[in-house]
UniProtKB/TrEMBL annotation:
Source organism, top-level taxon: Bacteria
InterPro entries: DUF1488
Lineage: Bacteria, Pseudomonadati, Pseudomonadota, Alphaproteobacteria, Hyphomicrobiales
UniProt-recorded name of the protein: DUF1488 domain-containing protein
Length: 87
């Protein structure tokens, strides 16, 4: 099966300074974290939760495409998306 993202929810991870979201491969949940650097240059360690979530929403299509590509190269259930994954 292909990785799908039926749930638009995402959450701010204050400890890791990134945004978490999930995808599904059949019945298997696949967790992702997008690091701050991958969300764009406008964010800083002092940015608000809303700023992180807005940055995620603005780049959602690119993030989901990158998550699918990364997942296809290395199947697993927990991934961290870094800035270099978007190149």
């Amino acid at each position: 099966m292909a990785l799908i993202f039926p749930n638009r929810s995402r959450s701010f991870d204050e400890a890791r300074k990134g945004v978490r979201f999930t995808g599904y491969d059949g019945m298997f949940e696949v967790r992702f974290l997008v690091e701050e650097a991958a969300l764009g240059g406008a964010l800083t360690r002092n940015s608000s939760e809303a700023a992180y979530l807005n940055a995620f929403d603005a780049a959602r299509a690119s993030i989901l495409e990158t998550a699918s590509r990364v997942y296809q190269h290395r199947r697993g259930n927990n991934f961290t998306l870094k800035a270099e994954d978007f190149r």
